[in-house]
């Protein structure tokens, strides 16, 4: 069982060129791994608060763009979310936008375990709209199959 998970995730929208680094401790008390699921919008997701975690209650009938899918018992650890912020990057356009105060929608990863209320999880999930992105990224922790 790993003591920490390490993962790189391409942030939406597709071809944005933005990458997030994930480094986190497992929350399951059994051997587990992280699973990245990417859905086009709109998307469906069945998670519910259970024991302080966002636990998947049923398998999604949708098809993810990377072939992965959530399963009952998976714990939602991260979701892409959008918030208003200054332009990113190191070019003149982003610097000029920062000086001019040009706010725009920025994608980040929301750490579901740090949510202080269930509404924060819902708000992060529903911030992934067609007006802002073409996909949502969900990172689940999944128990590994028991070895015989």
Description:
This protein has 148 residues and is mainly beta. The chain has one domain. It has helices spanning 92-100, 118-126, and strands at 5-10, 19-24, 32-40, 47-50, 53-56, 75-85, 104-111, 135-143. The strands form three sheets. Strands 3-8-6-7 form a four-stranded antiparallel sheet. Strands 1-2 form a two-stranded antiparallel sheet. The longest helix has 9 residues, at 92-100. 20% of the residues are buried.
Strand content: 35-45%
Taking all Cα atoms into account, the compactness measure Rg is: 16 Å
Biggest sheet character: 4 strands, antiparallel
Q: Helical residue percent?
A: 10-25%
Which strand order do you get reading across the main beta sheet?
3-8-6-7
Structural class: mainly beta
Topology pattern, helix = H, strand = E: EEEEEEHEHE
Average the pLDDT over all residues and give the rounded result.
Answer: 87
The helix count comes to 2
DSSP strand count: 8
Shape: globular
The domain count comes to 1
Low-pLDDT parts are 91-98
N/C terminus separation: 16 Å
């Amino acid at each position: 069982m790993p003591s920490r998970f390490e993962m790189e995730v391409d942030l939406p929208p597709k071809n944005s060129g933005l990458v997030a680094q994930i480094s986190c401790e497992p929350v399951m008390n059994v051997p587990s791994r992280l699973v990245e699921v990417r859905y086009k919008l709109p998307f469906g997701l069945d998670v519910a608060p259970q024991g302080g975690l966002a636990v998947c209650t049923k398998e999604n009938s949708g098809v993810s763009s990377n072939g992965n899918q959530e399963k009952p018992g998976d714990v939602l650890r991260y979701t892409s979310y959008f918030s208003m912020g200054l332009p990113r990057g190191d070019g003149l356009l982003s610097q000029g936008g920062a000086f001019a105060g040009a706010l725009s929608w920025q994608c980040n990863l929301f750490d579901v375990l740090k949510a202080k209320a269930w509404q924060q999880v819902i708000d992060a999930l529903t911030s992934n709209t067609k007006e802002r992105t073409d996909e949502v990224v969900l990172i689940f922790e999944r128990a590994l199959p028991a070895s015989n």
